[in-house]
Fold this sequence. Notes:
Blueprint: E1 6-8, E2 18-23, E3 29-35, E4 47-54, H1 65-73, E5 78-83, H2 100-112, E6 117-126, H3 128-139, E7 144-150, H4 157-160, H5 171-180, E8 186-188, H6 200-209, H7 214-219, E9 242-247, H8 253-264, E10 273-278, H9 302-325, E11 336-339, E12 345-348, E13 357-364, E14 378-381, E15 389-395, H10 411-414, H11 419-422, E16 427-431, E17 439-453, E18 457-467, E19 473-484, E20 492-503, E21 508-514, E22 540-546, E23 553-558
Parallel strand pairs: 4-5, 4-6, 6-7, 7-9, 9-10, 10-11, 14-16
Antiparallel strand pairs: 1-8, 2-3, 3-5, 11-12, 13-14, 13-23, 15-22, 16-21, 17-20, 17-22, 17-23, 18-19, 18-21
Helix pairs in contact: 1-9, 2-3
Amino acid sequence: MPFAFERVTAAPVAEHARQYTARMRDGVHLATDVYLPAGETDTDTAFPAVLVRLPYDKNSRYVYCDRFARLFTDRGYAVVVQDVRGKFRSGGSTLPFLREPQDGYDTIDWVVHQSWSDGRVGMFGDSYYGFTQWAAVATQHPALRAIVPRMTAADFNTIWQPHGQRQPVWLEGIKYFAHHWVDHDLYEYDVDASHRPAIEQFEQAFAAIGARSLWFDLLAPRLAGLPTQTGLHPFDARPVPVLHCVGWFDNIVGAHMRDYAELASRPGWDAVQYLWAGAVDHENYHLARAPIGEHDDHNTNDDALARMLPDYVNPALDFFDVFLKGVRPVSTLPKVTWELSHGDRRTSDIWPPRGSGARTFWLTDPEGTAAAGPLPGADLADSPTEDEATTRWTHDPDAPVPSLAGDSFALLHSYPDLAPVAGRDDALVFSGPALTEALDLAGPVGLDLHVTSTAPEFDIFAKLMDLAPDGRAHLILRSQVTVLADEASSVTHLDLGHTGYRLRPGHQLALLLTSSDFPLFLPAPGTGENPWTALTAKPSTQSLRTGGAHPSRLTITVAPHDHH
Length: 564
């Protein structure tokens, strides 16, 4: 039976956009839409421009550029949206990352030579079109005055290998390149992630399509580690004002917050770093409406999109009014604007907010059995115990722990209850006491574990959860790491990233530990073989030590009670 796939081609250009082709230095032309304020033509008043460079079809409903462009043009900005090289209507070969610095520079140069341009350019956008902003910063074009990268990373390798740590195979993230970066179009198809070898179905897809993804080949079956910033790193370039927009439920929030933290500590850059953080995921679904019903799904419902867009665009508009137009004083911008999930929106001059402090919980399971679940499991205690204990859990690659969230980019769309996982024999769970007053998390969360395994190589998945009085458990933060057996004698650290989150009275802080998360990640085969190419699998047992000379601990950052 032939491999089934659907090819998605470019959507029609929006009626209120004018499409141009911008010539790059090597003669390749990139399809570029221009939106001008109402009633203006390209020979009238000059405007500052907001540039968006993306690979997802500039005219698709998915990126809704024509919708958000209206909010910018209503405020007196020209909006320029471009298909990057090799995608949809643009020419050139299809390969991500590598040409974005040069193409970014050349596009900015094209913009400033248009009659409607006043010579000032800002950039805006999410994910890959956050990356294209950093690529342009690296080229130091004098017209680029400010950027607003949303839910992204300056170097995508920091997503695959945070802190240089080995990571489980994030199938969901890597297969993105097998769908979006084959050729100019998008290819939609399903794979059975339980099939072995896992890479075989992608080979079948490429054969059916008649083309393959070169970047997928760099990530699978062996992670090549080719940097996505190949020239001057943007952090070493001339500083520009940056509004970092992050989502506390974004699956790459850790990478973006590492970028923010580094630049906020760099002389020259520190003065122009701003942070906006909301209780949203990568697809901009909001916690207050999770799980998302049809009425609130901005991906399919135009009214829902209209309600969502002001929160999406307004922080950038206020930022550009200061650094692009210069019509508002810089003093009107808080350095940090952040949302406390299940709470309010707050401002601060630094992140974490002043007065925040670390609080440590010690994983405690004296008998070595309570953590096996179900919830609430063993304890997250305020003080360590002198008695050392060992708690075990299993990993069967043929019966992995279910992810429950089918799409971690849109986590809040389904917002699954993780409580059923906690009762499995291949999971451990630890919980703090029921709270008598709210506990506000504001800052980084880390986990230090003493874990060994019967396997030569194993994975640890950690999920910080909010356990409600009704027994449901929902994700706050997550992290994962691959551990080699000969490294397991030392402590394993997991950086769970940053959050702003209120645990309400009656709720409990909970921690879930497993060795698989399927199908978002390929299961470790338990044999030490590559998960992409392994043909066989072997169950393993993980041992977690707590207390005594081998304490395992969770460290959170707690906001001050008096934030005013």
